[in-house]
Amino acid sequence: YCRGNAVPNSGERRKRALDSRDDDIDDQDVIPPYNPPVRNITSLSWPTPSGLTEENVTEICNKRIRYSKSGESCGAVAGVDLDALVGQCISDIQITDDVSWAVANLGAMNEICKENVYKNITYYKNSTDGRIELETTVLDSLCPNDCSDRGNCSNSTCTCFEDYTASDCSISLKDSPILYGIRKSGLCDVRRRPCRNVGIYAFPLLDSENLTCHVQEFKVIESVWIPDNSISLYPGLMMDINEVKCFLPESPVNIGDYGNEGITAAGLKIAVSNNRANVSKESMMFITYDSVCQECNNTIKGCQLKVNL
Fold first, then answer.
1. Chain Cα centroid distance, residue 279
2. How far is residue 259's CA from residue 186's CA, in Å, rounded to a whole number?
3. Most C-beta atoms within 10 A of its C-beta, which of 15, 94, 108, 256?
4. pLDDT digits over 190-221, tens only?
5. CA Rg, the chain, in Å?
6. Handedness of CA 95, 100, 105, 107 (dihedral sign)
7. How far apart are CA 253 and CA 288, in angstroms?
């Protein structure tokens, strides 16, 4: 236990109590960078380190580009070189050892196709009222990632099959998010903000009312972190494609009135689901503490009382 600040002198101005306005001020952070492994491109060979053969990759790139619905529409468009696009796809995957580059090259083909349609006069026609209009048959067939083979493409928009969503139908409603980070390393000082929310880095996330944070409380009992057996559900708010803001219960760590004792540290174990059911296997630890009394890091046993208070 720890007491609050010393009683201020009568001439000192007392600090305003923290409220919800302060809760995002100290939560600014940088999204953890993605640092892919670097390979020596002067010594590329088949198979790749993960075992991809040239035949495997050629089949993947042909299926994703040449034989895709977009490829079938764009293959006849002047200026679209499917052979070159497939070759670039094969090269990218060989360099990165990552088959997701096939999707990136499909997107590149769609952009090249659109550009060449717009500048090709043969795709323009006279309307009945004398105006010149663009023939959109090719453009209407271009959908993000060919709807991931999980939906139908119409007017450049995917209509996803049951249990799939996202603009390209790439996300299953039954997918569990993968968590890979938490803002401020999961530490929150109640002297700086109320600690009623925290950003969790995860993917995939669905922007819906069912985005949920599953919270298990840890309490400090005689300097030991003890988990509560119950798990409570709190709403999540999608901030961008890979971050959800979890709204949290009030921390038991209170600064309190001057002279009153309070709990010095507490923790929450946070998991995330897109549908309140399929919960992430990973969870993030969120520790609230009083910096006057404690020094903390982001491990479950990472808080120690300060000495010589």
1. 15
2. 28
3. 94
4. 888 899 999 999 999 999 899 999 999 987 66
5. 27
6. negative
7. 7
Per-residue pLDDT at 51 exceeds 90: yes
Smallest CA-to-CA distance from 217 within 273, 263, 181 is with 263
Per-residue pLDDT for 110 more than 50? yes
CA distance 33 to 39: 18
| Cα–chain center distance at 29 | 14
Q: Tell how strand 187-189 and strand 284-289 pair up.
A: parallel
Q: Which residues contact 120 (CB under 8 A, 6 or more apart)?
A: 77, 78, 79
Phi, psi of 63 (to 5 degrees): -65, -40
CATH code at position 188: 2.60.40
Largest CA distance in the chain: 88
Nearest alpha-carbon partner for 294 in 225, 246, 245: 225
Q: Which helix (H) or strand (E) holds 48?
A: none
- Contact 120/134 with Cβ under 8 angstroms? no
pTM over 0.90: no
- DSSP H helices in the chain: 54-61, 69-74, 82-96, 101-118, 137-140
Is residue 260 domain-resident?
yes
| One-character DSSP codes across 170-192 | -EETTPPPEEEEEGGGGEEETTT
Domain, as residue range, for 66: 54-141
Domain count of the fold of the chain: 2
